[in-house]
């Protein structure tokens, strides 16, 4: 595998609204990020992915952009941004911007013009259709509920919005529009930003004629016919001229399809985020309903992505983000074994093949919020879901139970800095409530405890820097069918490491495979007290993780 800085990097995702409020208005901001750069440097991360900070009416917390070249009022201004970039670079930290160009806000001047008249030059920047016999133009559904079409009085037709009606889809068929997007990307790259995380990039291309969806939208508005042409053009026009990192958010991309987007010979993207793991416990018809997962399925997903990308392209590793429940609540145990399970899951993400992404607060084991009242929720997807299900006549208690485990707000509660009021996030009323467990889950107490999740992450990140086998080594799964243990060996030249993870709260035995029995074991990291005395068998404690150098 070719060496690249973004393969060796660890990325930290910041949701600025909830990170740190520097000016007492209850909303996190860019100066708040600057104030915490030393904290991130101490953790050891190489790259920050900033969720959208552009001007926005915030129907979807910044994923609805009304001006790509200006900063959201609540977050600060362009001087603040320039300072953030400089301060981050001074510390050797790179900045990845969120690029949201499947859609804009309906308040973007392009859309305002487009919606004003059928003859406006910007009209074709968006996707317009006449209704069919007084009905919507086709059967496409918005990801956030209802039809994907909204009627526009002024022009007596409908525009497409795959997300909220305040997020009209751009028309990627329009070449002028594409050129403007590339220009805008260069504006940020010329400032010195280090790459892009590309929001739902595989939705850009829509199939000609916009046919009804029969069983699934793949090939219609997901992975549409021209998607590779667009990404190649973007590479040609923009990416190839800079030393940057690109990661595309790619719902509904299979591991078989992935090399087409990230293949090193393809001139498209460096990595994608796939959603197979995130969808694993979702009821296929309703992601708010969670079904149990099995370790076997998690192993299958990790292994399949490893094998299908091997020698072709690079993977990204994450178990939560700003759209997902908290990792420790979903895949670990957020009660008795919160600390152990958070460390165990981190061990997987930081020793598997791919670039690890940490979502803010993950490094201190922040948990789901489990808010009990609908009035505590802010997320448009959650609120739409609630209203839709109430209308369908479903019991409120049942709806709230689903929302408690699935809502995107679980990940959006303020970062817990200390045990003072509002978790030290703000001295005003926060835009969304803090998780009451900030009293004991917070950065300050993590920094005071040598055994905290924080220091475990710091050590994992350091190990990655010191052991190129973790980045570039091959991987071999051990005990494929074991229902409790995820274990593998990484190997690069004469360097070998063995990773052993107990995924559950029961003690289990791990038998050292024959070929390693006579090796010298040296513990690189583990989440319990242990020594280097390894015989034939290891008794693993609940959620125990061990990484040995052999
Ligand atoms: O949540 C999802 C995966 O389980 C999908 O619905 C999908 O990945 C997601 O909704 C797309 O997310 C991105 O684009 C949205 C925005 O609301 C999200 O915050 C962003 O990450 C629209 O821009
Ligand atoms: Ca603020």
UniProtKB/TrEMBL annotation:
Protein family membership: Belongs to the glycosyl hydrolase 13 family.
Q: Give the lineage.
A: Bacteria, Bacillati, Bacillota, Clostridia, Peptostreptococcales
The protein in question is named Oligo-1,6-glucosidase
GO molecular function annotations of the record: alpha-amylase activity
InterPro entries hit by this protein? GH (IPR017853), GH13_cat_dom (IPR006047), Glyco_hydro_b (IPR013780), Malt_amylase-like_C (IPR032091), O16G_dom_2 (IPR045857)
The record's GO CC annotations read: cytoplasm
**Main subcellular location:** cytoplasm
Q: Which organism is it from?
A: Tepidibacter thalassicus DSM 15285
Q: Name one GO biological process term.
A: oligosaccharide catabolic process
What PANTHER family does the record tag this protein with?
A: ALPHA-AMYLASE FAMILY MEMBER (PTHR10357), OLIGO-1,6-GLUCOSIDASE 1 (PTHR10357:SF184)
Q: What residues does the Glycosyl hydrolase family 13 catalytic domain cover?
A: 13-412
Subcellular location field: Cytoplasm
């Amino acid at each position: 595998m070719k060496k690249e800085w973004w393969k060796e990097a660890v990325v930290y995702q910041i949701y600025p609204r909830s990170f740190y409020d520097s000016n007492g208005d209850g909303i996190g901001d860019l100066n708040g990020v600057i104030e915490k750069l030393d904290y991130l440097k101490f953790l050891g991360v190489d790259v920050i992915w900033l969720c959208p900070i552009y001007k926005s009416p915030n129907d979807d917390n910044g994923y609805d952009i009304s001006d790509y070249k200006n900063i959201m009022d609540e977050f600060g201004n362009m001087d603040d941004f320039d300072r953030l970039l400089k301060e981050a670079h001074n510390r050797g930290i790179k900045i990845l911007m969120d690029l949201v160009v499947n859609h804009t806000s309906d308040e973007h001047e392009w859309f305002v013009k487009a919606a004003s008249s059928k003859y406006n030059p910007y009209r074709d920047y968006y996707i317009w259709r006449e209704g069919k016999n007084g009905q919507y133009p086709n059967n496409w559904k918005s990801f956030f509920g209802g039809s994907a079409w909204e009627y526009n009085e002024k022009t007596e037709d409908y525009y497409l919005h795959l997300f909220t009606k305040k997020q009209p889809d751009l028309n990627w068929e329009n070449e002028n529009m594409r050129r403007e997007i590339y220009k805008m990307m260069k504006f940020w790259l010329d400032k010195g930003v280090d790459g892009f995380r590309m929001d739902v990039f595989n939705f850009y291309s829509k199939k000609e004629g916009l046919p009804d969806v029969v069983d699934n939208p793949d090939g219609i508005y997901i992975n549409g016919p021209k998607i590779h042409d667009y990404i190649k053009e973007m590479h040609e026009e923009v990416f190839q001229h800079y030393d940057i990192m690109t990661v595309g958010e790619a719902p509904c991309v299979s591991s078989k399809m992935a090399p087409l987007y990230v293949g090193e010979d393809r001139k498209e993207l460096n990595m994608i985020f796939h959603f197979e793991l995130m969808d694993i416990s979702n009821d296929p018809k309703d992601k708010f309903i969670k079904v149990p997962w099995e370790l076997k399925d998690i192993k299958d997903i990790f292994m399949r992505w490893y094998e299908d990308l091997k020698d072709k392209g690079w993977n990204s590793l994450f178990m939560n983000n700003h759209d997902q429940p908290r990792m420790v609540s979903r895949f670990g145990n957020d009660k008795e074994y919160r600390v152990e399970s958070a460390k165990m899951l981190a061990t997987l993400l930081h020793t598997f093949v791919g670039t690890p992404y940490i979502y803010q607060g993950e490094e201190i084991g922040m948990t789901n919020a489990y808010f009990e009242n609908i009035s505590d929720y802010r997320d448009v997807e959650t609120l739409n879901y609630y209203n839709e299900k109430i209308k369908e006549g479903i019991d409120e208690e049942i709806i709230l139970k689903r929302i408690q485990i699935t809502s995107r707000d679980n990940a959006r509660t303020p970062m817990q800095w200390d045990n003072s009021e509002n978790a030290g996030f703000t001295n005003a009323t926060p835009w969304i409530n803090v998780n009451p467990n900030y009293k004991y889950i917070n950065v300050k107490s993590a920094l005071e405890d040598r055994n905290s999740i924080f220091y475990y992450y710091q050590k994992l990140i350091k190990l990655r820097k010191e052991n190129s086998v973790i980045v570039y080594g091959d991987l071999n799964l051990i005990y494929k069918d074991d229902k409790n243990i995820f274990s593998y060996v990484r190997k690069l030249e004469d360097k070998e490491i063995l990773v052993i993870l107990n995924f559950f709260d029961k003690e289990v035995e791990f038998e050292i495979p024959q070929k390693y029995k006579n090796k010298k074991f040296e513990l690189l990291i583990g989440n319990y007290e242990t020594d280097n005395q390894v015989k034939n068998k290891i008794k693993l404690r609940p959620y125990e993780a061990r990484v040995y150098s052999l």
